[in-house]
Amino acid sequence: MKTQVYERLQQVTRRGLARVEKLFDAAFGARANPLYYLGTLAFFFFWVVVVSGIYLFLYFDTGTVTAFRSVEYLTREQWYIGGVLRSLHRYAADAMVLTMMLHLLREFALDRYRGKRWFSWVTGVPLIWLVFFSGVNGYWLGWDRLSQYVAVATTEWIDWFGIFGQPIARNFLDQASVSDRFFTLLVFLHIGIPLFLLALTWLHMSRISRPRTGTPRPLVLGSLAALLLLAFIKPAVSQGPADLNTMPAAVSLDWFFLFVYPLFDRWGYGAVWALAGGLTLFVSALPWLAPRKAEPAAVVDPPNCNGCGRCFADCPYGAVVMQPHPDKPGHQLAAVNPDLCVSCGICAGACPSSTPFRSAAELVTGIDMPQLSIHALRARLDAALAQLRGPARVVVFGCDHAADVGALREAGVATFSLLCAAQLPPSFVDYALQDGRADGVLVTGCDGADCHFRLGNTWVEQRFTHEREPHLRTRAARERVRVAWAGVADVERLRKELTAYRRELRLSTVEPSNEEPTRNSGMECAVNE
Amino acid sequence: MSKVMRYIGQAACYGLFIGCIGYFSTSPAYVLLEPGQAVLKLSVTHAGQIKQPCRRRSEEELAKLAPNMRNAMDCTRERSPVDVEIELDGRELYRATLAPTGLARDGASSVYRRFRVPSGAHTLRARLKDHMDLSDFNYVRESQVTLASGQVLVVDFDSRRGGFIFR
Q: Are residues A444 and A415 in the same domain?
């Protein structure tokens, strides 16, 4: 029941996000949609903060009076570089919070937080705290009226625990209470916390192979230009020197970092700790509060594994490792770590033994998914092809996490939803087209940079363009194979693509190939060409 | 979508992005004090007197102790809680009994509070009693204070300087 509530919430959020993503797809294209790069964008903004911060550090003076003066010097006297970098430092930090929180929301909506993915989710929670520690700590450094407010409110909040012999807020009683050495400590923290954050970011990504840390260049340039423009339009400025003998009537809050501070006055410090602690625990426990039904992990069949390592190379989560073969000296054997396997089936699609042309009645491949085996897929494909009638007969291979291909089923169209588009061994395309049993094959799956299993659509494209093994057979007429990526919200677009494709096939003069496809023994590592 | 429309779409997205960041990085302003308000900060850190006076051990008690532990005087470390009261114009602003810190309850008693008070002239009275057996407060200070709007008045305590300090 509880799980259903979370899943319902996920679905609602996912539908809302899908609409927004569609708009962004139209503007940026699926390959550079910023919503598909929220994590890497946050990481990019982190580096903008680091680089701009290094420059600011060169001019920053650690002292009760000089801290404010040095920041003012950068802002006013050196506005063309110091002022711009100060603004960039602040706005990039804000952008980091924004993209980080959207990243969290999106990963939740796309169900990427539980099951085998719990580790990345849980290690992301302390990252949020560290980002806020760094940001709040940074707001003390300029020692203006906002710094004064943040310093007093933060120390009072910490004092709520009563763990210190003397309340640390006593350090900000009045002007005379603050010492120059305090700023040295602040700078130390402002450098140390981001370093710790960087280390934890590595941990956050450590369970996935080929983690995506780079952002497409157009997005990097676009967001950097946008932040620079903002720095010129609205430079970040101080709010007057701190004076602990008075309290400002109002402060301009940075709501990205300090949104919780007004709650201190309304709810009290204890309630805000309860909120922050409760939310942290809730978000951390989410993978287990709504556990996903465990999907079977990939299974290796040693007699059919020739140790080629393609599954190892393609696994997006590092769940497949190569081990020395126990019976064949000098050979290797794939092994699956079930704790890391997310059941995407990409390994089965990469295995050279997964060819349907093998004559064995029971098609056992080197590595396979128990819930949708290669044998079962071939049997279902055979059954569907036998019943496929009419002009422009098309077999559609889709993915459970993208546009629902079941909605495309009609006369002359057979649909198969796989665990991931890359579960499809390319030889299945040839198999469907052999002897003119189908006129075309349409492969679809998650759009652009938004593959549910991170790399599935990339691997499919690379296999089809001969950049990655196993290759798509070259003897299959290219006009008869179509790839059309479509996300969850793109069913109608995909339907139009299919209709257009079938129209093209009807008009096409391409004759079905009568060549006999190569039949592999399944143990060869050679490409199906 | 045409290339021009895509660029317009991208510009709109980036505009929304920096518009959101630019606005919420400083706005809306948060009001800390209403006009005509000032701040009073109470900060007291003071170790109460030793709770029990030293007493001489009896011969029987000494005999029960190890030879190297036979100290004639038994002095406990525990300190008394401290009572603190603040009144503004005869109205109680704060009143508490502060327990000593430390596992052996031998540390200082501390309090830090921030109050919003009306600006203007006030009679401020601060009292502290550092032993629970005392019948009356042993540190008292009463003064006329005039607070400007936004001013912070600190009520500190230092027994070496005579007790309460208003600054």
A: yes
Cβ-defined contact of A26 to B25 (cutoff 8 Å): no
Closest chain A C-alpha to B154 CA, distance in angstroms = 7
**Is A19 inside any structural domain?**
yes
Domain chopping of chain B, boundaries: 1-30, 34-52+78-166
**By residue range, what is the domain housing residue A316?**
299-507
Mean pLDDT of A326-337: 91
Q: Which two tokens stand for residue A473?
A: 């057979």
B18 to A139, A270, B12, B14: CA distances (angstroms): 20, 35, 10, 6
Which DSSP helix (H) or strand (E) runs through B94? strand B91-98
Query: What pLDDT, on the 0 to 100 scale, is given for residue A520?
Result: 34
Cβ–Cβ < 8 Å for B79, B50 = yes
Chain A residues with CB under 8 Å of B110 CB are 165-167
Residue A335: its H or E element: strand A332-336
Indicate whether A44 belongs to any domain: yes
How would you label A242-272 residue by residue, b for 16+ Cβ within 10 Å and e otherwise? bebbbbbeebbbbbbbbebbbebeeeebeeb
pLDDT in tens, A4-61: 888 888 889 988 888 898 899 899 988 889 999 999 999 999 999 999 999 999 999 9
Interface test with A, best of B82, B112, B164, B166 (most A CBs within 10 A): B112
Shared domain check, A380 and A281? no
Q: How high does pLDDT run on average in chain A?
A: 90
Task: Note whether A29 and A106 are same-domain residues.
Answer: yes
Of A174, A234, A250, the CB nearest to B29: A250
pLDDT tier at A132 (50, 70, 90 boundaries)?
A: very high
Pick the CATH number of B34-52+78-166 from 3.30.60, 1.10.1200, 2.60.40, 1.10.10: 2.60.40
Put simply, the answer to whether B14 touches A222 (Cβ < 8 Å) is yes
If we measure between CA atoms, which residue out of B12, B133, B81 comes closest to residue A20? B12
